[in-house]
Specification:
The complex is a heterodimer of chains A (about 230) and B (about 120). Chain A is mainly alpha-helical and about 230 residues long. Helix content of chain A is about 75%, strand content about 5%. Chain A is flat and about 70 Å long. Chain B has about 120 residues and is mainly alpha-helical. Chain B folds into two domains: about 60 residues; about 30 residues. Chain B starts with 18 loop residues before the first helix and ends in a 5-residue tail after the last helix. The chains are: A mainly alpha (about 230), B mainly alpha (about 120).
């Protein structure tokens, strides 16, 4: 079509005008993401879309909480644990937060050692990251178990107040937990490839950094969940 | 749209992403320092809850710590501080439109709340 011919004209030096020019500019993504590894650019764009998904969950949580007429259950009490006869508010969530932050720290260092071509340290740090991630998911499973079987929280009702609490809680933490689980699997795969020297042969450790981007994003989402759902 | 290539990287800090082959090099100490900051910020936001800070101060403290933590993770751990400005804008600008959604839903939830109070006698 005429439009396509106009767009191709950009290569020969004549700048397309109007709608054709608009399409040519925006389709030239190598201009926007120049010198960026294609996988890294795609991971960033995927994370952008994931940002919108989690934002929709958090916004709907805000809507439900603001429109609930029954009192909202106090997370400080709901997520308290009794350790040695003493009830500490929100302690499990605090531990989970520290575990996830630590996993982000080890991941950042793994990326660094990857670019130094240090195979063993990179794989070890990624393994540590995956282990911390797995322990995070285990603690979350414990938390779900406690809420479902001991407190009787359901997506449609709970004994502590507003019924919307359960729906928000299971949806938001469930989706985040799913992301962490997927991240643990991905880290295990990339770490084993690192150990086998797959990235040395290609002289390109970008895969470690791309995996790191995803992992840091999971930690980033938890920062917002921790603030808005657990502390608010 | 102006595609003039900018020869100088916009950040003063370490040579901006010099192609993906070489990758980025920063001292390990930088990551340990950021890790420490994140621990301190998380502890402080936990203490807000522990000491039952309420009202506007609680809101302010929680959001401040949250934004600082998010900023550290994105800029240092995810290396956004050393990326080209076109990538930074492509990723960080679109989420701003979420503010519109939040405002719309805040208005909507206020309407729903008062509808329930007025017509459903404090029901679900």
């Amino acid at each position: 079509m005429a439009q396509a011919i106009e767009t191709n004209a950009a290569a020969t030096g004549t700048e397309p005008q109007g709608l054709g020019g608009f399409a040519a500019d925006w389709s030239a993504d190598q201009e926007v993401f120049r010198h960026v590894h294609w996988g890294k650019a795609m991971m960033w764009i995927f994370l952008l879309s994931d940002t919108f998904i989690f934002s929709c969950f958090l916004t709907s949580y805000m809507t439900m909480r603001a429109s609930a007429t029954l009192p909202w259950p106090d997370p400080s009490k709901v997520f308290a644990l009794t350790i040695g006869g003493q009830t500490i508010p929100l302690i499990l969530i605090a531990i989970m937060t520290f575990v996830l932050i630590s996993s982000s720290g080890t991941m950042a260092m793994a990326v660094n050692f990857g670019y130094r071509r240090n195979r063993r340290v990179t794989a070890a740090l990624m393994g540590a990251t995956a282990l911390l991630g797995a322990s995070f998911v285990s603690m979350q499973a414990f938390e779900w178990h406690k809420l479902i079987f001991e407190e009787g929280v359901r997506p449609w009702t709970n004994p502590m107040g507003a019924p919307q609490f359960g729906a928000s809680f299971f949806m938001i933490t469930g989706f985040h937990g799913l992301h962490v689980s997927a991240g643990v699997i991905m880290l295990a795969i990339v770490a084993s490839k690192v150990l086998r020297g797959h990235y040395d042969r290609r002289a390109d450790y970008s895969a470690v950094e791309i995996a790191g981007l995803y992992w840091h994003f999971v930690d980033l989402v938890w920062v917002f969940i921790f603030a808005f759902f657990y502390l608010w | 749209m102006n595609h003039t290539p900018s020869p100088a990287p916009m950040q003063a800090a370490p040579p901006a992403s010099e192609g993906h082959a070489g990758g980025q090099q920063h001292p390990i100490g930088l990551y340990l320092k950021v890790w420490g900051y994140l621990f301190v910020l998380s502890t402080m936001s936990y203490l807000v809850d522990y000491f039952h800070v309420q009202g506007g101060l609680r809101w302010f403290l929680i959001v401040t710590f949250m934004v600082l933590k998010a900023g550290l993770i994105v800029s240092i751990f995810m290396h956004m501080a050393w990326e080209r400005i076109s990538l930074i804008y492509a990723i960080l600008v679109p989420p701003l439109c979420l503010a519109t959604l939040v405002i719309l839903m805040a208005i909507e939830s206020d309407y729903t709340f008062w509808t329930r109070i007025l017509f459903f006698d404090r029901g679900g």
